[in-house]
Amino acid sequence: MKSTEKNIGQQFWQLLKLTQKMEPKILIYHFLAAFAQLLSPYLDFLFLGLFLNQLAHSSDQIFSLLILYLVVRAVAMIGFRYFSKLATDSRTRLHYRFDSAAAEKMLKIRFADLNDPKIRQAYQTAIDGETFTGGIDTFFNTGITQMFSFIISLIFALSTIIVLVSQHTNQTTALANFSNSIWFYLLILVLLIAPGLTAWHSVKRSNQIQQDMITKVAGNNRKFGYFARFFDQYQHGRLTRLYHLQPLLMKIADFNLYDTQDTFYHSQLKMYRHSAIPEILANLFMGGLYLLVGIKVIVGAIALSYVVTAVGYLHQFLSATSDLVREIGYYINMIHYLQYYVDFLNMPDDQTAGTLPVEKRDDNDFELQFQDVSFKYPDSDVWVLRHVNLTLNVGERLAIVGKNGSGKTTLIKLLTRLFTPTEGVITLNGIDIQKYDLTEYRSLLGVVFQDFKLFAYSLAENISANQEFDESRVWQSLDIADVKKRVYEMPAKINTPLTHNLDANGIEISGGEAQKMAIARAWYKDAPIIILDEPTAALDPISEYEIYQRFDELIGNKTAIYISHRMSSTQFSQRIIVMDQGQLIQDGTHQALMQQDGLYRELFNAQAQYYTEDKITAERKTADDTFAIS
Ligand SMILES: Nc1ncnc2c1ncn2[C@@H]1O[C@H](COP(=O)(O)OP(=O)(O)OP(=O)(O)O)[C@@H](O)[C@H]1O
């Protein structure tokens, strides 16, 4: 359900649930802070009543009462400072969590949706909505705090009413009878509720006046903007001079200016008038409450000293009500805008897909199968893969070759669940891969894509993709990727930060070295299925050959998929598949495919002639010029 389809109560509830999840004590801290803040005036009213009582009867305990008052007041003040600090800290944490949750959500959004303008718009609206309303921080600091002040003052007001209701008089005068009657209490209730209602009416009217004013002023601004753009443009200079347009233009400008001022003046006047009426009424209602409490004193139901306390409590309630009512429109707006953020966080993502655990197997017996898989990219009508049937046997070395755009990378994107097949299924040990828990499923795959990225963190963090790492495994991975010696020479070895982006001591590495690090990262993951999608483009053929050879020696019973335009990689593969225009057109060993009159032999022979000594040296020289660090 979108934010606009939910009522304000549902939106408020959802927002509270989310904030409670992120910062469980935030509400209680704000309640205690609001309570401690309100306690001071309430203590004043209470103790003033007690002092008057003392003065009216015996004043022997007045000194101890004074001490008690000072102590309790000090405790309330300390409590207020303490809880305010806790509330402020929790707001700061919540604000941070809101920001990071949005970023985290963006990271979890299904890869296939990442480029969708609707998703980007939802993210932008969520962020704008947060900023526009002053954010979740302001929501708690003003909205929730004011709501709690209202609730607390309501509780105190109710306690006063309970006292008034419970204190009857035995007198039988007309006034005494009235003070004991239901009408008396109903009148109190009306006098307590009425100011809120009149204030609400006035707020609605004021908002309307403001809206009308904005609409009218916007029209004038548009006309004035046209005038401003007109008179200062060179090409209009001749026209205004030859036709003596200055007086006309100035008249239009003056009219707009005066009209705008007039609109402001009258709107302000109307708003004052509308806010003055409820203020006058509030004072009248307050006077009425004083009178009713006074009647209770006159008829002897309550002590004179209690008047101060009762009137003080009721007065606090009335001002908390009008404060809340005045701002309620703003808070409703705030909840509405924050709902865009909640909606964004509730969007379906990677993590909501698939729940089945992946069986842990020491023998790495994981069989992957493409069953009649066809695929079109979202918002595209072109079939990129067509009826692909392929079984990846356990422990197999498989090379995928084919011309540019034949669908090799797309095949891997489907295998890694970055996209879902449009038709057909991919299975892992007989079960559709979409049904598995995504994190568990992806832990089976160590992938290096062509457009791999390294980050401006330490080398070890880049390799382990974690802040904690196994040092010896990092070194082993660097060795496999043929970059151990280079890292050994670095100032902080595996703790050396990459680039100067975040650290002045960071180092820059070549494109070829970066590719080797990305390969080391895939090795470190220790996944049972390793996929290298042309990770060696920036490497010279000899380095590429050495890396593949080491991989081949150490890979054991893991399954490996190599995609490379250099046909040399196919020598390490027991099986080669050839793709053309999204279809799997050949499948077999190097020898078998070389005997066929097909694309494989054509590609292989076309490349063989380039692999002369001279070409290899030239390639080595240009290999290091691309960088892939962000
Ligand atoms: N995100 C995308 N949206 C739409 N079409 C895409 C997208 N990515 C790739 N394609 C198209 O899908 C087809 C197959 O691309 P793919 O990257 O799988 O080919 P490839 O065989 O890996 O090519 P190369 O050897 O150049 O890396 C190409 O025609 C490409 O333009």
Automatic annotation (TrEMBL):
Residues 31-333 form the ABC transmembrane type-1 domain. The keyword Lipid biosynthesis does not apply. SUPFAM superfamilies: ABC transporter transmembrane region (SSF90123), P-loop containing nucleoside triphosphate hydrolases (SSF52540). It comes from the Bacteria. It comes from Lapidilactobacillus mulanensis. Keywords: ATP-binding, Membrane, Nucleotide-binding, Transmembrane, Transmembrane helix. It is a multi-pass membrane protein. The chain crosses the membrane at residues 26-50, 62-83, 147-167, 182-203, 280-308. Its main location: membrane. It is found in: Cell membrane. Residues 368-606 form the ABC transporter domain. This is ABC transporter ATP-binding protein. One of its GO terms (molecular function) is ATP binding.
